[in-house]
Amino acid sequence: MAINKESNTYTILFATIMVVVVGGILAFLSLSLKPMQEANGKIKKKMEILKALLTTEEFQTISRSNADAKYADYIKAEIVLDQSGKVIQEGKDAAFNVDIKSEYKDKNLPAVKRSFPMFIAEKNGKKLYVIPIIGKGLWGPIWGNVCIAEDKRSISGASFGHQGETPGLGAEISQGFFIDRWTKGDEKISDDNGDFTPFEVVKDGTGPNPTKIDGISGGTITSKGVEEMVNRCLVPYTIYFKSLK
Description:
The protein is globular, with a radius of gyration of 23 Å. It has a domain at 75-243. It is α+β, with helices and mostly antiparallel strands. It is 38% helix and 21% strand. Strands 2-1-3-4-5-6 form a 6-stranded antiparallel sheet. The mean pLDDT is 89. It has helices at 8-53, 56-59, 67-74, 100-105, 176-180, 220-233, 235-243; strands spanning 75-81, 87-90, 116-123, 126-136, 141-148, 155-162, 200-202, 212-214. The chain has 7 helices and 8 strands.
């Protein structure tokens, strides 16, 4: 029996078969590649944490092939805080497994149920604290890590990332010159009493002092996004640090 390839029935049948076949192939590829994608995501996260912890020269020795080992060398403990600065979880991967990006996107998640992870590191015989932060730029999510020195007040390092900020403008938050502005002026996250001190990202050149940071020229909205992100995310950690004194 000859098949009428010009009929509507043949066209619909052919289209249906193609959808099923192509859909099956795509589903198979998605499942097959998922473990690799998850592994790459973990490596990227570890490298972002290490970037905040290490100097530029030290970070240049980090690659995807040695990131796991270097992370294990530096990160000695992990804890998770609640909004009031109380430890609610600790142990291996306690902080690493917290997805602050998903929590930030969930507008229905009450503030009291949000998690605040922290990585406790040792470097050159000193204890350092790496704090992940998340916020919003002009076009999409921005994020970063802030490294706090052994005094539990001074910012000793930072790293920032973004999704879709404008090249040459807001996207510059990930560049070294902007990151240096958070570490070269004796910036501190708390006052002498241990209470949080808000930061202001400015554009008038008055940034070099403990609570003001020069922003990105032409990237005002992204710069202010970093300001909001830092000021919102760091508060529970200053409460925790104050409780240790």
